[in-house]
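Inverse folding, one chain.
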């Protein structure tokens, strides 16, 4: 499966908004065409790791993915995302995550939480796995 959507470094991602070199665990995500937030099962938390070298990798809680990310200030664009394709019990969260990565154009970091957004709308909220 190929999902097309179209990167910077510190061990403390909640300082100064740096999101690289730390693993982020999904707290909630908004499904496409919905205002309802989906919350992952605590035993299958989707993750995202952003490298300072312009790459990402993570899981949907079931499948693994990797790709590229370009970061300029607080703007970002994910791209060239490829993923494994195993049948998963909660496809809604996986679909919402891939759709979000395709739409996201900026982020903020607030109190240890990474907020992935399009414009002012928050699509996904992650928490640093360093503080979990």
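Residues assigned per position:
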């Amino acid at each position: 499966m190929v999902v097309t959507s179209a990167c910077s470094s510190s061990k403390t991602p909640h300082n100064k908004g740096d999101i690289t070199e730390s693993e982020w665990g999904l707290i909630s995500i908004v499904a496409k065409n919905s205002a309802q937030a989906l919350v992952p099962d605590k035993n299958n938390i989707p993750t995202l790791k952003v490298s300072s070298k312009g790459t990402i990798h993570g899981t949907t809680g079931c499948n693994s993915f990797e790709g590229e990310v370009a970061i300029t200030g607080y703007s970002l664009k994910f791209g060239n995302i490829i993923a494994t394709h195993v049948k998963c019990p909660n496809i809604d969260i996986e679909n919402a995550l891939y759709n979000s990565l395709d739409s996201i154009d900026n982020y903020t970091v607030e109190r240890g939480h990474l907020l992935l957004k399009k414009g002012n709308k928050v699509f996904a909220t992650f928490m640093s796995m360093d503080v979990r």
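Strands lie at 2-3, 23-30, 37-38, 47-50, 55-59, 64-72, 75-83, 106-110, 113-118, 121-128. The longest strand covers residues 64-72.
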